[in-house]
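Shift notes (night). Ran ComK regulator while the centrifuge was going.
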Amino acid sequence: MIYNEDFFEIENLVNELSDELLSSQLVSEYVSVYLEMDQNKEVDTILVDFLKAKEAFELIEPYGKYAPDFKEKRRNVRQHKRILDTNELVSNFKFKETSLQNMLDYVTFDIAKSISEDIKIDAGNPFFEFAKRGCGGSCHVS
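Came back to this:
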């Protein structure tokens, strides 16, 4: 790689973009909600209960329906997961996390498209439909 003035200009622009993103309201809200959730004793208790239920199920999961209490342990994991997911702090965190991820996906898309329309973006989000995903099969036509 050749380090010239263009490289340093790009590096400066990336640093500016990073600083702008970090100081954005969306990132600020995400961090705030994360800290609130992380420090909440109720969420901590719910998470520990879920992880215990999940671990108990994972021990017998390879044996499937032949394991004792398979259905009960699977149901227990689902119940604890639902309790975790419906907790107001957890659901608010997941909403903020998804919003932040969507913003980062759009920024990535805009950067790639400013370079070339042919760049394929894999956003990892099935609802990220405006990006071309993969080659679409046209690259295999002879």
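The helical segments are 5-22, 25-38, 41-60, 70-86, 88-115. Residues 88-115 form the longest helix (28 residues).
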